[in-house]
Specification:
By secondary structure, the chain is α+β, with helices and mostly antiparallel strands. The protein contains 5 helices and 8 strands; from the N terminus they run βααβαββαβαβββ. It has a single domain, classed as Cyclic phosphodiesterase (Cyclic Phosphodiesterase, Chain: A), CATH 3.90.1140. Strands 2-1-7-8 form a 4-stranded antiparallel beta sheet, with helices on one face. It is globular and about 40 Å long. The termini are far apart. The mean pLDDT is about 95. GO terms for molecular function: ligase activity. This is 2'-5' RNA ligase family protein. Keywords: Ligase.
Length: about 180
């Protein structure tokens, strides 16, 4: 079991990302994002239990978002993380709040406890669109990402701490508008 601290879009603006989930699912072995039963989100940190307690993770998140409001994030590109399987993600336009929150979490909890891809210097803010791209659809998925010419704005309005798998919300708080 692992813990993650996230900001998610828990409102109707999330449907644009969810439409992209459905488009990306055509390249996957099986659809990954709808299967989570969880809304579009950014993950700031993942900790493998029992290295960090639920309370420690949640307290770090609350401290990191103190004074923060809901985040309106614009996406104009789809990118990918190479690997097997390939992962497609929506690339946020520059947003200092995401970086500020991530930095505050890393200051509150020693990043050595965090999974390597979420540590300072390695973390890339991303909103995942698909995690199970079939190897034989690799080139098609990259062509789809490169050809994307949309513009989406999504309101990320709830921070939370979840345990997974499966995703179970432990604590959550709506951010002020």
């Amino acid at each position: 079991m692992a813990l993650a601290i996230n900001i998610r879009a828990d409102n109707s603006s999330a449907t644009e990302i969810e439409r992209l989930w459905d488009q990306v699912a055509a390249f996957e072995v099986e659809p990954s994002m709808r299967a989570l039963g969880y809304r579009p989100h950014f993950t700031f940190a993942i900790y493998d239990s029992p290295s960090i307690s639920e309370k420690t993770a949640w307290d770090a998140m609350l401290t990191a978002v103190s004074g923060e409001a809901q985040l309106r994030i614009e996406f104009r590109q789809i990118r990918w993380f190479e690997g097997s399987p390939l992962v497609l993600w929506a690339d946020p336009a520059s947003n200092g709040a995401l970086t500020r929150i991530h930095s505050a979490i890393s200051a509150a909890i020693d990043p050595a406890h965090c999974r390597p891809h979420y540590r300072p210097g390695a973390w890339t803010p991303h909103c995942t669109l698909g995690t199970r791209i079939a190897d034989e659809r690799h080139d098609d998925a990259i062509a789809f990402a490169r050809s994307y010419d949309g513009r989406i704005e999504v309101l990320f309005d709830v921070v939370d701490c979840v345990a997974f798998p499966p995703v179970r919300i432990i604590s959550e708080q709506r951010l002020p508008s």
